[in-house]
Write a structure and sequence with these properties.
about 110 residues; alpha+beta; 7-stranded mixed beta sheet; 7 strands; globular
Length: about 110
């Protein structure tokens, strides 16, 4: 039986990443304030500030939002398997030093002057 999908978007690597109802429920049970912001999860995957190496084969898309809990980074953990992938979890953090210790896989280019 196929899982119900809330939506999907493309990662910076061109891989379709899906968010299932099951994973969204998992995310929002621990972080209910994200219930009203599924679009931030998709936006973080599609247009992150950086993509970091995860603990094993995950990737961490990171984007800063001023309007998330007074200004936080949203970290969306996802896996890519071939040409598709899925969201594992998502969480906010203000610990920039934690993020800076991880290996950078991809970084948004700064606009040239």
């Amino acid at each position: 039986m196929a899982e119900s999908i809330i939506g999907e978007t493309a990662s910076v690597h061109g891989v379709r990443i899906r968010l299932t109802f099951k994973q969204f429920w998992h995310i929002t049970m621990k972080r209910p304030y994200l219930y009203r912001h599924p679009e931030k999860i998709f936006e973080t995957i599609k247009n992150p500030d950086t993509v970091l190496k995860g603990w094993t084969d995950e990737l961490l898309a990171v984007k800063y939002y001023r309007d998330l809990l007074g200004g936080k980074y949203l970290v969306v953990v996802y896996r890519q398997v071939g040409r598709e992938g899925f969201v594992v979890t998502a969480f906010p953090t203000s610990k920039k030093e934690w993020l800076e210790r991880r290996e950078i896989i991809w970084r948004k280019k700064k606009p040239s002057k």
